[in-house]
Write a structure and sequence with these properties.
2 helices, six-stranded mixed beta sheet, three-stranded antiparallel beta sheet, mainly beta
Length: about 110
C-alpha cells in the first residue's frame, strides 16, 4: 500500500515496488503549496475517471497509475472500495491525486 510523506514543503506518494510496476511510474511528489484542497472520499475508486494512460485497472478492485478524463489528469493508487485521500492540485502535471491510505482523515488534518 502506498504511503504519504508530508513535510513543510512537499507531499510525496511513496509507492511500493508492486505499485511502481502497476503504475509504470515512480513516487509522485508535489509542492505542499500546490494542494488547493485535501479531502476524504468514501470510495477512492469512484473518484477516478477517464482512460488509463498508463497504469493498471480492474473495475472495482484496483486503479493504479495515470488517468485522463478530458483536461483532468489524475494519479491514482486505489486498492479496493476503501476511503481515500483526494488532493486537488494547482499548476502541476496532475490535477488530482487519489490514494487509499490507512488513515486519510489524519492526512487531511496534517494538510489543512
Amino acid at each position: 500500500m502506498a504511503s504519504l510523506v508530508i513535510d513543510d514543503q512537499e507531499v510525496t506518494v511513496s509507492l511500493s515496488a508492486a505499485e511502481r510496476l502497476e503504475a509504470l511510474h515512480g513516487n509522485v511528489t508535489v509542492p505542499r503549496a500546490a494542494v488547493v484542497r485535501a479531502w476524504v472520499a468514501p470510495d477512492g475508486l469512484e473518484e477516478v475517471h477517464g482512460l488509463k494512460m498508463p497504469g493498471t485497472g480492474w473495475p472495482g478492485v484496483i486503479m493504479v497509475g495515470t488517468w485522463r478524463d478530458g483536461e483532468v489528469v489524475t494519479f491514482a493508487v486505489c486498492h479496493g472500495r476503501r476511503s481515500a485521500l483526494v488532493l486537488d492540485l494547482a499548476d502541476q502535471v496532475y490535477d488530482r491525486i487519489v490514494v487509499t491510505v490507512e488513515n486519510p482523515e489524519e492526512a487531511v488534518a496534517r494538510l489543512t
